[in-house]
Amino acid sequence: MLASGNSSSHPVSFILLGIPGLENSQFWIAFPLGAMYVVAIVGNSAVLHIIRTDHTLHEPMYLFLAMLAFTDLVLSSSTQPKMLAILWFHAHEIEYHACLIQVFFIHAFSSVESGVLMAMALDRYVAVCFPLHHPSILTPSAVFKLEAAVMMRGLLWVSPFCFMVSRMPFCPNQVIPQSYCEHMAVLKLVCADTRVNRAYGLFVAFSVVGFDITVISISYVMILRTVLGLPSGEARLKAFGTCASHICVILAFYIPALFTFLTHRFGHHVPRVVRIVLANLYPLVPPTLNPIIYAVRTKQIRDRVIPGCCGKDP
Question: Which stretches are transmembrane (predicted)?
C-alpha cells in the first residue's frame, strides 16, 4: 500500500529481512550481537561518566574521547534494537519515516565518528610534535569549535540523503534484504533515475572519509618523523604508546566501514550473506571495541574502572 505525498508516493512501511541465507540461524546469531550491544552501551556510558565526573580528564584527548563515546552510543542504538527485534521476534516491518530517520542517524553519525577520529589525530600531532604549545593551541574553546564543526558537517552533509529520497516514487517492492535501512539499500527500491542520488552519496563518502583519512595520514607521518628523531629509545616508546589506542580505534572503524561501502557498490562477486553479515557488524564493532581499547590502553580510565588494579604504568 502506498501513501501519497505532494510530489511522490511512498510505501507505508518496508520489510527488513534480517540476514537472508541464514534464516535458520538468525535467532542464535542475535545472542552475540546482543552481547556486543550491551558491551557497547555499558562501556561507552562508563567512559562518558568517568570523563564527566573526573575534572582532571577535561583535556583535549579525553574531550574528544567523550564525543567518540557519545557518537558510538548513537550509532549502535540506531541499528541494534531493531536488528535484535527482527532476529529474535520476527519484527520485520519498519515504518517509512522511521526507515528514513535510521538512514539519517547511521550515515550522519558515521560521518561524525570519522571526524572525531580526524580531530583526535590532530590532537596527537600537536601533543607529540609541539608539546610545549599543546595547551595554547588546543584550548577548550578550540576543542569545542572543532567538535561543533565535525557534528555540523555530519548533520548537514547527510540531510540531503533523506530529503532527495523522500521526493522520489517507490516501486511496489518494499523488501530490504538486510537488518536496517541504509541509503543504498533504500535507493534500490526507488522507481526513478537515481544517478544524482548515487553521485551525491559518493561525493559525501569520498569528501568526508577522503579528507579525514588524508588528515589522519599526514598527522601520523609527521608524528612518525618526530618520534624517530627523538634521541632516547624510552622516549620514542612512550610517544608511540600515546598514539597506540588511537591507531587501534582508527583501524576498527575504517576497515569494516570501507569494506562495507565498497562491497555494497562494487563487490557484486562477494556472496550476499557475507556482505550482509559485515554490514550488520559495521555499526556495532567500533562502538564495542572503542571503550575496551581505551580502558586497556589509558591508565586514567583503567584506574577508574578497576581502581588500583595495575599500579604504575611502565
Answer: 27-50, 62-80, 100-122, 202-224, 244-262
List CB contacts of 225: < 8 A, sequence separation 6 or more. none
Helix (H) or strand (E) holding 116: helix 96-129
- The percentage of residues in the chain with a pLDDT greater than 90, rounded to a whole number, is 62
Which residues face 176 on adjacent strands?
A: 16
Task: State mean pLDDT over 60-89.
Answer: 96
Q: Read off the pLDDT of residues 123-139 as tens digits, 9 standing for 90 and up.
A: 999 998 999 999 999 99
For residue 181, give the 3-state DSSP assignment. coil
Closest CA to 261 of 40, 106, 83: 106
The rounded distance, in Å, linking the Cα atoms of 190 and 197 is 11
Four-point Cα dihedral 86, 90, 96, 99, nearest 10: 0
- Residue the block writes with cell 578550540: 142
Write out the H or E segment, with its range, that includes residue 93. Answer: strand 93-95
Q: What is the DSSP string of 170-203?
A: B-S--EESSSS--HHHHHTTBSS--HHHHHHHHH
Contacts of 119 (CB under 8 A, 6+ apart): 64, 146, 147, 150
Q: How many helices (H) and strands (E) does the chain have?
A: 11, 5
